[in-house]
Design brief:
single chain; alpha+beta; Alpha-Beta Plaits; 4-stranded antiparallel β-sheet
């Protein structure tokens, strides 16, 4: 497997329901091999000069690097936030079996 070919994408959502909707669609469309949800996180941030302390959910996707722009575009279409947090982290190491499974379950 090539170094830096695979990524983990993190998307913060307004709720577990929104995370499930986005994750399901991205996996069905083969933009991600899998979607995991951490249903309850607490976020602190400023938005439009106002401090927020709110519950959110975290969507975690396993995919290939070349799909990141397509994931970003599609997630923005489905997301309720004006500027959703969508970031990617490289997978530095992973089992060949798992990465092979990711490769077989996303667009090529």
């Amino acid at each position: 497997m090539k170094d830096n070919e695979y990524i983990v994408v993190l998307i913060i959502t307004s709720s577990q329901k929104e995370a499930a909707k986005i994750g399901k669609i991205l996996v069905e469309e083969k933009l991600a091999a899998s979607a995991n949800i951490i249903p309850s996180i607490r976020s602190f941030f400023f938005w439009k000069q106002e401090f927020h302390d709110i519950p959110e959910a975290l969507l975690i996707l396993n995919t290939k690097k070349f799909l990141f722009e397509k994931i970003t575009k599609r997630a923005k279409e489905l997301h309720s936030y004006e500027i959703p947090e969508i970031i990617a982290l490289p997978i530095l190491f992973g089992s060949n079996d798992f990465l092979g499974w990711v490769k077989g379950n996303v667009l090529t």
